[in-house]
Design brief:
single chain, mainly alpha, rod-shaped
């Protein structure tokens, strides 16, 4: 006796859409990580005096780098 399943099968389009979403998410995370690393590196190279001249302190560097990364979007 054969059994049949009532569970619908995933369509190829559904998988393809899911995969494209995963790829876009990966690209966005890489772009945000690059922005974070660049901003962090540039600010860490500055002296306390240089940071003070632009109204920042070394304690704020990571938060500013995170904010820069959050603003990144894919075109």
């Amino acid at each position: 006796m054969a059994y049949s399943s009532e569970t619908p099968r995933a369509e190829a389009g559904l998988f393809q859409g899911w995969m494209m979403d995963m790829i876009e998410t990966y690209k966005l995370r890489r772009a945000r990580l690059a922005a974070y690393d660049q901003t962090l590196g540039e600010l860490q190279q500055m002296s306390e005096r240089e940071l003070g001249d632009i109204g920042l302190s070394s304690v704020m560097i990571r938060d500013i780098a995170l904010q820069a990364a959050e603003r990144v979007t894919l075109k």
